[in-house]
Write a structure and sequence with these properties.
The protein is α/β, with parallel strands linked by helices and about 700 residues long. Helices cover about 30% and strands about 25% of the residues. α17 runs antiparallel to α18. The protein binds adenosine-5'-diphosphate (ADP) and zinc ion (ZN) (2 copies). The site of adenosine-5'-diphosphate has 15 residues, from α7.
């Protein structure tokens, strides 16, 4: 369709598809000047339109001319994405063995990669640039942050003067010019956040176009943090990127970041895939947190990719944690990362006392031992707060018939449906339902046992809802609030609970690990962990690492204002060395013991792993597919191990049977070299299955 006289031109377009690297489309003469590499286009795909990115442009195509379709539209006012961003995403795609399109397109805000519903499109980008960034209460327009940001700075809140340990850590960070990974290790309350904020302020002051990226776990992006950043970085335009923002808002923040208007970019894992032209420094806060790992699509680790990005850009990156991942800890031990430590809490002497309470042979009431109940009463009597932690939401984990042993199994999964209660507050009658936490499937509570007709069905065990009921009964005078994902589902509800706790309007907080992170409650002096045992003896070799991190974090909630405080852990295995290390808040002792075990057992970080997962209607089909894949491998190269195909730990999910095959090697390079040859061959296998590969899986 090219105009007479002008040579034909073809755009190679990236699309979010698991096949093919690029797709050729013909450009009209008017489109040619706009369709530079990095430009956004709308193209036909089947009967639909899709947004894609121009990878390159050329005068010819290898496809038959009549099969080449035309670019529908070049999105002229979209920011052209820079070549070094594509190069980085190319690295990400290569590392995770995906196509560039599969990595690049999902990295764009949904609003911007949704094909236009006709005419309106042309101005979407322009509209978003003018849009106020209504992320939270004190939001302001993206382009106008400079102008009025000073108004949000609380009068008379000077930067705290760093203590000597913090100054030493900051000096360590300052030394890094160019690429360097620093691991900032210090217990909760040791002042890590202050150190990075000082450092980032210096980095941003150093160059007028410098940008800094602060990555935080999903849960960490509380109004508290954005409020602190706005106060601290008065006059510095801030972009906030996380998946819970409304689409248009996220797109507006993203544009401000991409165009360099935002200087400080704070976000969850997806933010690491944002093009940041002036990027000068990266901080990954709570670097051990599992939420940095994407769990669907391209399963990338934002922490690992932040390190890779810093290496490519030649800039420093800081990983901060009270309980670093054993991968990072090991890297610090071998000198690949530089270890910076904050050994003490800022407010000295405030680490809580740890008490282990054996629940056996005790008069348990509502799951709480006598000493536990007494400790809560004592805290309340002193006018202090208590936090009761349990990592299981819902009313009870399973509904049960005592007559025949029936249990409320999920019909689609190898799991039980959890008993939940809705309502039950003032004026609304309680209603119960069963819900599967894996597939989301719901059912009514049966009137009688489906197995034997017995009408006397009862809950087995307890979740946070039932625990809350118990606490209300035990402490009728106390103001009690619960926080877990069921509460947080209602927009703003989680923030309200936290804010009320800060205002001192709550005496007992009960909930899941949502409570463990990042909240600084001044009057909290009593923390109870109702059941710590499920994490101690799990088939997953990372379970103790996760349990230790969680308990450190939970313990770190107590006594932040300096009052004497205690953490009570109900456990049948009080002798476990994990608790000794915890009592001394000695992460190094715990980590070194774990690393010794991992070394002995040949587990990560001494081994590198990839996991192939297959889903099929029948387990046999899934296993057979993996068997064929394994055969394709022939005799794997020296050092590389392909294990036998096995059913996944949760073998059935949402009606699909699942199996997996683990690959491992002591070094990354041979593993990846093998995958590059093997995966295309696997893709050629026939079978009614879905499969995917995961690199560096966190759960096996
Ligand atoms: P972390 O990130 O290690 O949990 P923070 O940086 O949040 O620790 O510090 C914990 C608390 O101590 C915060 O309330 C913070 O404002 C305060 N703080 C940190 N450093 C100092 C300091 N040098 N002087 C006074 N207060 C400080
Ligand atoms: Zn029964
Ligand atoms: Zn289910």
């Amino acid at each position: 369709m090219s105009a007479p006289g002008s040579p034909p031109a073809y755009a190679r377009v990236l699309l979010d598809l698991p096949v093919g690297e690029v797709f050729d489309y013909r450009l009209g003469p008017n489109q040619v000047p706009l369709a530079v590499p990095g430009a956004w286009v709308v193209v036909p795909w089947g009967n639909a339109q899709r947004v894609g990115l121009v990878a390159s442009v050329g005068p010819s195509t290898e496809l038959a001319e009549e099969r080449v379709r035309e670019v529908t539209e070049v999105l002229a006012d979209a920011p052209v994405l820079p070549a070094d961003w594509f190069a980085f995403l190319g690295f990400v795609a290569g590392y995770y063995h995906r196509t560039l399109g599969e990595v690049a397109l999902p990295a764009l805000p949904k609003r911007l990669r949704t094909p236009p519903a006709a005419r309106a499109r042309g101005s979407v980008f322009a509209r978003l640039r003018r849009r106020p960034l209504a992320g939270d209460a004190d939001a302001r327009p993206a382009g106008a942050v400079d102008a009025d940001a000073h108004t949000t700075r609380p009068a008379g809140s000077p930067l705290p003067t760093l203590n000597p340990d913090q100054q030493a850590a900051l000096a360590g960070l300052r030394e890094a010019t160019g690429f360097r990974v620093s691991l900032l290790h210090g217990v909760t309350g040791s002042g890590k956040t202050e150190v990075y904020l000082h450092w980032l302020a210096e980095v941003l002051a150093g160059r007028p176009d410098a940008q800094a990226l602060l990555l935080v776990p999903e849960i960490g992006l509380t109004p508290q943090l954005t409020g602190l950043l706005r106060a601290r970085f008065a006059g510095v335009p801030l972009a906030v990127l996380h998946s819970e923002l409304p689409d248009a808002e996220r797109a507006a923040h993203w544009l401000a970041a991409v165009e360099g208007r935002a200087r400080l970019v704070v976000g969850t894992r997806l933010a690491v895939l944002t093009p940041l032209p002036g990027l000068a420094a990266i901080v990954v806060d709570e670097e051990h947190d599992a939420s940095f790992k994407q769990q669907e699509g391209v399963r990338y680790s934002a922490r690992d990719m932040a390190v890779a990005l810093a290496a490519r850009r030649g800039i420093p990156v800081v990983l901060g944690s009270a309980t670093p991942s054993l991968e990072s800890w090991r890297a610090a031990q071998t000198g690949r990362y530089r270890l910076l430590s904050l050994p003490d809490r800022v407010h000295a002497g405030a680490w809580p006392r740890l008490r282990r309470i054996d629940p056996r042979r005790q008069a348990m009431v509502h799951g709480l031992a006598p000493d536990t109940r007494q400790a809560i009463s004592d805290a309340l009597a002193r006018g202090e707060q208590a936090l009761v932690f349990m990592n299981r939401r819902g009313f009870a984990p399973v509904l049960h018939c005592e007559a025949c042993g029936w249990l409320s199994a999920c019909e689609h999964c190898a799991a039980f449906r959890v008993l939940h209660r809705d309502g039950g507050g003032a004026g609304s009658p309680a209603r119960y339902r069963l819900q599967c936490h894996h597939c989301g499937g719901q059912s009514r509570v049966p009137r009688a046992c489906p197995g034997c007709g017995n009408v006397d069905l009862g809950p087995l065990g307890r979740g946070t809802q039932r625990l809350e009921d118990g606490l209300r009964e035990l402490y009728p005078q106390a103001r009690i609030a619960r926080l877990d994902r069921d509460v947080a589902r209602h927009r703003g509800a989680a923030g309200e609970v936290i804010a009320a706790a800060h205002r001192g309007e709550i005496d007992i907080l009960v909930g899941t690990q949502m409570l463990a992170k990042g909240h600084d409650f001044q009057r909290l002096t009593c923390v109870v962990v109702v059941d710590a045992d499920s994490g101690l003896f799990s088939a997953d070799f990372r379970a103790p690492e996760r349990l230790f991190a969680l308990l450190m974090q939970v313990a770190g909630r107590a006594g932040r204002a300096g009052a004497a405080s205690e953490v009570l852990i109900q456990t049948r295995f009080g002798q476990h060395p994990l608790f000794d290390a915890l009592a001394r808040h000695d992460f190094a002792a715990f980590a070194d013991a774990q690393l010794a075990e991992r070394h002995q057992a040949g587990l990560p970080p001494f081994m590198h792993q990839a996991l192939m997962r297959v889903e099929a209607r029948q387990l046999d089909a899934a296993l057979a597919f993996l068997g064929q894949a394994r055969e394709l491998a022939g005799t794997p190269p020296e050092g590389l191990t392909l294990f036998d195909p096995v059913p996944m730990p949760m073998a059935r999910l949402a009606g699909r049977e699942r199996a997996q095959l683990l690959l491992e090697a002591p070094a990354r390079a041979p593993l990846h070299a093998f995958l590059r040859d093997w995966l295309p061959a696997v893709a050629g296998l026939k079978g009614a299955v879905r499969w995917q590969i995961e690199i560096d899986p966190l759960e096996i």
